[in-house]
Design a protein that fits this description.
alpha+beta, nucleotidyltransferase, 2 helices, 21% helix, two-stranded antiparallel sheet, transferase, DNA/RNA_pol_sf, single chain, 3-stranded antiparallel β-sheet
């Protein structure tokens, strides 16, 4: 059995609970070009999934939520909690995770491509070129 806490994003108000929601997606031309280059040059292709990625996003806004039912006791019925990290269901969760991920990749020596903000490239004398194309979804 799998369960997760999900924020009630329908209660979020623009300008109060969030300012921006935009999270870029990889351009299809970038995907096609990268797959074509991979096939042409015989490059190794790998994929991975970041488990629970949205739970690691850092929020820019202050967000408070009610204590979920079943947690605490009658005394916590009128208490709210301040979120420290993003949560599934928040409108800004994809953007928050991507911001943290991009900072990490840049710190690891990758450069963010200006033509596609989901494409990271790293040149290394010993390993050659490493290309990372990111796809963010909320499934």
């Amino acid at each position: 059995c799998k369960a997760r806490f999900v924020a009630e994003s329908y209660t979020q108000t623009y300008g109060i609970d969030y300012l921006e929601t935009f999270a870029p997606i990889a351009k299809m031309n970038t995907v096609r070009t990268l797959l074509s280059l991979t096939a042409n040059y015989g490059w190794e292709l790998q994929q991975f999934d970041v488990k629970n990625a949205f739970l690691h996003g850092e929020l820019e806004e202050e967000i408070y939520m009610e204590v979920p039912p079943g947690y605490g006791n009658n005394l916590t019925a009128h208490i709210v909690c301040k979120l420290k990290k993003a949560l599934y269901g928040l409108i800004q969760s994809p953007r928050a995770w991507l911001g943290r991920f991009a900072k990490f990749m840049i710190a690891m020596g990758y450069r963010l491509n200006q033509g596609d903000h989901m494409l990271f490239i790293k040149h290394s004398p010993s390993r050659g070129v490493t290309i990372l194309l990111v796809h963010v979804d909320d499934l």
